[in-house]
Amino acid sequence: MNVPEVVEEPMGWDALPGLFPEFPEPGRWLEMLERHAALLAAAAPRVRVTSTPPGEWVRRHYAESLELLRILLGRSRCESLADVGSGGGFPGLVIAAVRPECEVHLVEPLRKRASLLEEIAAALGLTNVTVHAQRAEEAGRGPLRDSCAVVTARAVAPLAELLEYTSPLARPRGLLALAKGSAAEAELGEATAAARALGCSFRGLVAMRPEISVNVSVALFEKAGPTPERYPRRPGMPGKRPISGKS
To answer: For residue 198, which of 178, 228, 177 has the smallest C-alpha distance?
Structure first.
């Protein structure tokens, strides 16, 4: 039996305040997010950060980032956050705009993208943002190790690999919030050994509201204590040899 494809309607900027009434000062952050989008569009000829058509940006990038934050705020004060593989700033820069009291670290290995993130943060006056132009494995061995209340990532890698990129940045009792698509449940089964090795406990797979996305969920993990000394391994190893029961 063929399952009909669900087509999501385009979303306009004016829909966001109504979808997220719990976020104060919508006039402030909505204007900031629109300017963020304009700056990304202007930079597109020199720095490619997304393959999503511009007509889908509000839903796919901004609404989904805000929904991830909404899910987070029911579980964490989110006073400090690291966003791994931030790209154009989703969700990290969006969260920084909505939550100016949150200290946000954007970890982006590609120098051009990292420089663009710095430019946009400066243009938006976001003094709560620090950009780290380095691989996640390097960040996990530096000052960010075991430091952040929340770590996010979106469309970066399969969970077994992604846990090694993200968990070293979370402080003990910190939360990982990892946006995943329709393969999330299968990836969870394959990530059991990685979660155990990294001291992370699975706390649930929370689906985004259907008006935001029909196939994106947020996988939540809590980190028990300091990162085991062995992790993260050297750059490239999490992707080449994801942690498994045989690792």
So the answer is: 228
Evaluated on CA atoms 211, 202, 230, 247, the torsion sign reads negative
Domains in the chain, ordered, with CATH?
29-240 (3.40.50.150)
pLDDT per position as a tens digit, 98-155: 999 999 999 999 999 999 999 999 999 999 999 999 999 999 999 999 999 999 999 7
Q: pLDDT tens, 95-110?
A: 999 999 999 999 999 9
Q: Are 65 and 96 in contact (CB under 8 A)?
A: no
Summarize pLDDT for 24-72 with one digit per residue, the tens.
Answer: 999 999 999 999 999 999 999 999 999 999 999 999 999 999 999 999 9
Residue 41 to residue 91: CA distance in whole angstroms: 17
* Pairwise CA distance, residues 155 & 181, whole Å: 8
